[in-house]
Design brief:
heterodimer; A: 523 residues; two-stranded antiparallel ribbon; 72% helix; B: 461 residues; mainly alpha
Chain lengths: 523, 461
């Protein structure tokens, strides 16, 4: 039994085991509690790095597969026993999930370090929740069984709900309950969809995603199921107009919660579209693609305009997420290899750049106890090092070439152009211009100008711990911006394969009225 | 005859123990009462395991035992055991008559076990319903210094006897129509051509039982009784009575003829129970409405009897609901102060600060009742979904989805009070060892049944 044969299980369950061990530690020993949880998350990071290194970039299939029977209910009479209902522990990674796992593993130690000083109440419970959250998120990204996927998907909710609600700001209870119920609305429809999907499969019930891919559904069933799953994913992304939970949750969450929410949780929705909706309901995906792409473009513009209108720095960053997620969504529903690869790159880049912005806003809040842009101004003079890191994150967020977000957004736009032509790309590209406006508004409001408030003068520059938080994030932002091919080469096999799979299902349907725009995307 | 007596050993043991407890009480052995009761409940479960494994029809088909009854019987004994554990401290705090309390609880449990096995004969059915209910009427009013408790007992008794009368009337009608009190005889008659009086009779019997499981529109008494009765009694009622009565209902109503009726009852119950629960400020009333809502979910499995999973789904739902609900009531019993003060939801503010483990356990039970993984409550909901969709009851599945979303709101409110609301005067709670044991066992069961759901339905075939 080598590590690599159970690598994914370790990645999922090491944090869970860490959380359970932590529960046995007496309260108040914060020195030990912090270091212990940081160590656990660093172990997971090491395992994930090992996984990325071992990952075979040329294979479009699942790697590091693990399989075990879990729930089995047999039926029929004594002679003819057959499986009525089953759920399996079935996990694996491919080009889609490999970097999302790596991103998750990277952001958790960062956000733990960011909570080092700011989390005072119930410190032990906070780290237990964080570790459980990490395990659950990892579970979402590795599950190849629909029920298992759902279990992890909903299990993410509970610790996140507590993190927002217990350690958040003033309106935290409202924000956390809204977050929970909103997500639950979507996910319960998904659960009904999962059961229905499994019952519709050829040869009786199955919850195995890979088997489900081989049992095509009729168009009507695809459309209903796409809607059932799609609502869960669209709320999570969040796609306009299902975004209203996001600004509250992001703003009221503690820094670590915001980083995880923006960095990883939003990607669960995009991941769901790619993992479930595209391969399982290709006809429905083709049918809905232009509408979802249109909503994505609306989201890009709306998010950017709303971000510009904010006076609360954290809320501004939250709205910018809606805009960025629009690019990823646009890329995915261009249904082309470029678009999907672009979306994958945007997911990773957004996790880093927006994560960095939330971290910086959190650090400023710890110093000044305000999130209002008008309470700052001229902070660069007092904190030049912070200003430097902030500059990189801000420029990445507005899509400057050479930094992480640019290649992904460009690829998404190229994919969208090939699929939908100018009408979608021009407004989307205009979103990049708007991004420049709101990001510079944020940066200038906090960092530039004259010092008008006495409190700003007393703000110390970042300490060693904070540098250790920001430096790796900034480094990765630059590296991905300069060498995007390192990621793209590992996701290429997956993206081409999945685009081709959808393409082939459209070619089978040549008779049906496929719109001109969709045909363009398949050339 | 001797063999028949062995088969009903699971009922004989607690009956004898109940009598012994009363006699012991006279001679000053009150302190031993809960432990005697607990031992007899354990003995009942163990003997069930040995004597109910095969299908048997003791006393000339008056009763019916088998693995399925055993599985449900385990759930009932578990409910009694948990209720006894959480009563130990509660009964002393509220100064209830100790030996009578435990003796009545045992007798009620015997009634429930009889109800599980009474299906073949309508008279047995009536007798066991009465046997299960009469002790509960008394127990609901045992805290006689509280007017709410008296009110609960009165309401429960009047409406309960009314329902029993309807049940008896139904049995008479069925007898008149089919010439048989025996299930097999009635079935033989109804399969050819059911006479009107048999259909009405079965409907009346069902009404009597629906009252016990509190499906809408027969739920009116539930919130008042659960609120007024001592918390451990409410816990026991909300689980034991429900399981036993649903078990009998399942045989009556699992048929094509009744599908529209069960469909409307369960849809109505889910909607009314959940919406009413949202408005509650008292946690006992909230749990009462939540138990109504769960009765609605359970009856979904009766409506979808065509699915091979319906029986499993029902039994699993019983058991998952039993542990989640018993655990929640145990926390309620622990948090309440003398005279049942501290049962408002707002009294739970800051519980996480003073009693983190108690709050965490309550959170687990709330999430389980709401059907959020990783808890047994989730698996139960999943199986209900499966049964409903497998039987092509899409409409019921959609109602389950919508009402579950509503239910999340009121369960979350309890967790929000416990974990998130900051208060200057948190409610300091001392949990006695037996209550803590009940809570811990329920929490462990909720977690284990999620990981290994097969254990809850081993004997369901």
């Amino acid at each position: 039994m080598s590590i690599s044969s159970h690598l994914l299980s370790l990645i999922v369950f090491v944090p869970v085991a860490g959380a359970l061990l932590l529960a046995a530690v007496p309260r108040g020993r914060s020195f030990f509690i912090r270091r212990f949880s940081l160590t656990v998350s660093l172990i997971v990071l090491a395992l994930s790095v090992f996984m990325v290194v071992k990952f075979n970039p040329h294979s479009a299939g699942m790697q590091f597969r693990e399989f075990a029977e879990w729930i089995r209910f047999a039926g029929g009479d004594e002679q003819h026993k057959r499986l009525v209902f089953s759920v399996d522990y079935n996990i694996g990674v491919d080009g889609l999930s490999v970097f999302l796992i790596a991103l998750t593993a990277f952001l958790f130690p960062i956000s733990m370090l960011a909570s080092w000083k700011s989390i005072r109440d119930h410190e032990k419970a906070f780290y237990i929740c964080t570790l459980l959250l990490e395990g659950a998120i990892m579970g979402v990204f590795v599950s190849l069984d629909t029920v298992l996927f759902y279990i992890f998907w909903d299990a993410v909710l509970v610790p996140m709900y507590l993190i927002i609600g217990v350690w958040g700001y003033e309106k935290r209870v409202y924000a956390s309950v809204k977050f929970f119920i909103y997500t639950l609305v979507g996910s319960l429809f998904m659960l009904a969809g999962i059961v229905y999907l499994g019952l519709e499969a050829k040869g009786g019930w199955t919850s195995n995603l890979l088997e489900l891919m081989n049992s095509p559904l009729c168009r009507a069933a695809q459309i209903w199921l796409f809607l059932g799953f799609g609502i869960a994913f669209a709320i999570k992304v969040p796609m306009f107009p299902f975004h209203t939970w996001l600004p509250d949750a992001h703003t009221e969450a503690p820094t670590a919660g915001s980083v995880i929410l923006a960095g990883v949780l939003l990607k669960m929705g995009l991941y769901g579209f790619l993992r479930v909706c595209l391969p399982l309901f290709p006809d429905a995906a083709v049918l809905f693609a232009p509408y979802i792409a249109a909503l994505a473009v609306v989201g890009i513009i709306y998010g950017a305009l709303a971000a510009y209108a904010q006076s609360d720095a954290k809320r501004l960053v939250a709205y910018s997420s809606i805009s960025h997620m629009g690019f990823a969504l646009l890329g995915i529903f261009s249904l082309s290899a470029q678009g999907i690869q672009g979306a994958l790159l945007v997911m990773v880049a957004h996790g880093l750049s927006t994560g960095a912005l939330f971290l910086i806003v959190g650090m400023l809040y710890e110093r000044r106890h305000s999130r209002m842009l008008s309470d700052y101004g001229g902070a660069w003079k007092m904190m030049p090092a912070m200003g430097g890191f902030f500059m990189v994150a801000a420029l990445a967020s507005l899509g400057l070439p050479g930094l992480a977000n640019f290649p992904g957004e460009l690829l998404s736009l190229i994919g969208a152009y090939r699929a939908f032509g100018w009408p979608f790309v021009i407004p989307a590209a205009f979103g990049v211009v708007l991004a420049a406006i709101y990001v510079l508004n944020l940066y200038a409001g906090l960092m530039h100008g004259q010092i008008e408030h006495e409190e700003v003068k007393n703000m110390p520059d970042i300490c060693f711990r904070e540098a250790m938080i920001l430096a790796p994030v900034t480094l990765l932002i630059v590296l991905i911006g300069v060498f995007p091919l390192w990621i793209l080469s590992r996701t290429a096999a997956y993206a081409e394969n999945s685009a081709r799979a959808i393409g082939s299902s459209i070619y089978l349907e040549q008779q049906s009225p496929v719109t001109d725009m969709q045909k363009k995307g398949l050339r | 005859m001797k063999n028949d007596l062995i088969i009903i050993l699971p009922m004989i043991l607690p009956t004898l123990a109940g009598m012994a407890i009363i006699i012991l009480g006279v001679f000053g052995g009150r302190r031993l009462a809960p432990w005697t009761a607990l031992a007899s409940v354990g003995g009942s479960a163990v003997s069930m395991f040995f004597v109910w494994r095969d299908y048997q029809y003791p006393f000339g088909s008056l009763l019916w035992t088998g693995p399925l009854a055993m599985q449900a019987g385990f759930a009932v004994t578990a409910a009694a055991a948990a209720a006894i554990l959480m009563s130990v401290d509660y009964v002393r705090r509220e100064k209830l008559p100790e030996s009578e309390y435990y003796a009545l609880m045992l007798l009620s449990m015997v009634g429930m076990l009889l109800l599980l096995t009474a299906m073949p004969n309508l008279l047995m059915l009536f007798l066991s319903v009465e046997m299960a209910s009469l002790p509960l009427y008394v127990m609901a009013g045992m805290a006689r210094r509280r007017t709410k408790s008296l009110e609960a007992a009165m309401k429960f008794f009047l409406l309960g006897s009314f329902a029993s009368a309807i049940l008896l009337y139904g049995a008479a009608l069925v007898y008149g129509g089919s010439g048989s009190l025996n299930y097999a005889g009635i079935q033989a008659q109804t399969e050819t051509m059911p006479s009107l009086s048999v259909v009405i009779g079965v409907g009346f019997i069902a009404v009597g039982l629906l009252f016990k499981v509190s499906l809408v529109p027969f739920q009116m008494w539930t919130p008042d009784v659960y609120e007024g009765a001592p918390s451990p009694v409410s816990a026991f009622m909300s689980v034991g009575t429900k399981i036993a009565a649903f078990f009998a209902l399942m045989w009556l109503l699992a048929g094509w003829f009744w599908v529209p009726v069960v469909w409307s009852l369960s849809a109505l119950t889910m909607v009314v129970g959940n919406i009413a629960a949202v408005a509650q400020k008292n946690i006992k009333r909230m749990l009462a409405y939540s138990s109504i809502a769960h009765a609605g979910y359970i009856s979904v499995t009766i409506a979808s009897f065509r699915s091979e999973m319906s029986m499993r789904a029902m039994v699993f739902y019983f058991i998952a609901y039993a542990f989640s609900n018993l655990g929640a009531w145990a926390v309620v019993a622990a948090v309440a102060k003398e005279g049942e003060k501290g049962t408002e939801i707002s009294d739970y503010a800051g519980l996480f600060k003073t009693n983190p483990f108690l709050a965490a356990a309550m959170g687990l039970f709330m999430f389980s009742l709401a059907g959020i993984p990783p808890t047994a409550g989730f698996t139960a909901k999943l199986m209900v979904f499966f049964a409903a969709l497998d039987a092509q009851m899409l409409s019921l599945a959609i109602i389950v989805v919508i009402t579950t979303i509503i239910s999340a709101y009121y369960y979350l409110r309890v967790t929000a009070e416990m974990f998130m609301v900051r208060t200057d005067e948190p409610n300091e709670v001392k949990v006695s060892l037996p209550t803590a044991a009940a809570i811990a066992l329920c929490a462990a069961a909720v977690a284990v049944l999620f990981l290994i759901p097969g254990w809850a339905t081993i004997w369901v075939r």
